[in-house]
Design a protein that fits this description.
The protein has two helices and eleven strands; from the N terminus they run H-E-E-E-E-E-E-E-E-H-E-E-E. By secondary structure, it is of the alpha+beta class. The protein has one domain: Immunoglobulin-like. The N and C termini lie far apart (61 Å). The N terminus is likely disordered.
């Protein structure tokens, strides 16, 4: 009887382990983080002399891109902020507009974008997949515009971490 009980326990352990190994475990989508370090020296075509700095942090999880942009030392209130297409050497078109708070220090904007739908800014429309490619290749940047610098006071290339 004892031998049969031990044999049964061994079989159950082996079979149970097999079930665990075959179990279809659902995993959460992986997240990718991107960061842009914002400064006036990064503005193109003309760098801006300003004490302002900032950080734009993006997290891509599945088809949702969340973002937070913070600044310090702007010379006037923010008027706009966007993601633009372009390398660090050029001024490119806007592809993702944000609603911003009119501030000089602190949180400019925060939110999320559903990338299952195209993202539009005026005449420019980009698919979520195309935006992901731009972010992964470093071909997009964040720009913060102010009353004193309508073309942009601080800017930073969005870099995959």
């Amino acid at each position: 009887m004892r031998v049969r009980l031990l044999a049964s326990a061994a079989i159950l352990t082996a079979v149970g382990g097999g079930f665990l190994a075959c179990n279809d475990s659902s995993t959460a989508p992986t997240s990718t983080t991107y960061v842009a370090t914002l400064s006036g020296a990064n503005e193109k075509p003309n760098p801006v002399t300003t004490p302002a700095t900032g950080t734009a942090t993006y997290t891509l999880t599945g088809n949702t891109l969340t973002y937070t942009i913070t600044v310090t030392g702007l010379t006037s209130n923010t008027t706009m902020s966007h993601i633009h297409v372009g390398s660090s050497a050029v001024a490119g078109p806007i592809v993702v507009p944000y609603t911003v708070y009119a501030i000089q220090n602190g949180l400019v904007t925060t939110g999320s974008i559903d990338l299952t739908n195209p993202v539009a800014s005026g005449a420019n429309t980009i698919s979520g997949d195309s935006l992901k490619v731009l972010l992964n290749n470093g071909n997009a940047y964040t720009n913060v515009h102010t009353s004193n610098f309508p073309a942009g006071e601080i800017r930073g290339q969005i870099i995959k971490q």
